[in-house]
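Onboarding guide, step 5: your first structure request.
Type a short instruction followed by the sequence, for example:

Predict the 3D structure of this protein.
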Amino acid sequence: MEEASLVAGMFELKISRAEIDRLHTAYGKVVEQAVEEQLVQQALMPLEEGQTTSIPFEPSKTNTVISSSATNSITMRDGQSTTSQSQTNPRVMVVQVDGVRVLGQPGEQHLCEGIEIKCAMVYSESSPSERTRVACECPASEFTTLVAGLLRQGKVRQNDVLIGISDGAIWIEELFKVLGIPQIIDVFHATEYLNTLMTFWKWEESTRKEECKRWCRGEVNAKDWLDLYLKPPHHRQGWSEEALTAANYLESRADRMAYKDFKAKGWSIGSGQIEGMNKHVIGSRMKRSGMHWSRPGASRMAAHRAQLCSKRPIIHFADLRSTAFPVLHS
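The system replies with structure tokens like these:
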């Protein structure tokens, strides 16, 4: 708001804050609608063609990406296919998904604290700054369709190696499962559970820090570490609830924490990109002191911010300004 008032003043335009707010609301609504329509339409399209390549990711042999919000899917890559000279070095495309909470308006009913803004981005591992983003407040099933469209918008091809990175939230795990995207658990999130276990075992602080650093450097596969240090379930009587939760989290997701193997392939193992989006794109604008949002308002602002702060926006301002700000012609 302050920036808009400043720009208007530079052109000697007298626009009240209320009028600026009205214009911004109108534009946010148009952006949100245009992005949703674009991605839903894109989700119905096949991925760009490319030579089929094997998936260097277990245990899944086939990777699928939905072509609509229904159960229809297309085969993206076949683990049994042969390779050719042109696919010796396929692109590694990264999808990161997360949720960030903002405060809701007083008096509104919320299932949990605040309103969850769902965020996603896709980019090439070799060009992480060339991100395509989407953000909004909606049910997980609807957001899954938007992410399917985001893959097409981000120019993911059939021969690309596609990996997903997240903190392991249930709704994100389900999203990756529906889209057929192999998932990597963010290593920094994993080490929080790791540290809980080591603290319960009364390991020295210096030892705990070194173990966490080894995981973050990609020197450890979680399964190997757990096989070495973690006792079987029948030897865990008397453990605290926190320790049991941490052990279960790590054991049940160990195949998605093979950090040593992932790093050897040149893959990312941290979700710093999406965390940065949560902080700088969403949080810096929507978590200011005293701010409370309605659900429609929060969704519009998040959609707008995702486009405004993207180097590769889905919708450009020039394509929407005439719709958002119609001008009467005599």
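Each response can be followed by summary notes, for example: The chain has a mean pLDDT of 83.
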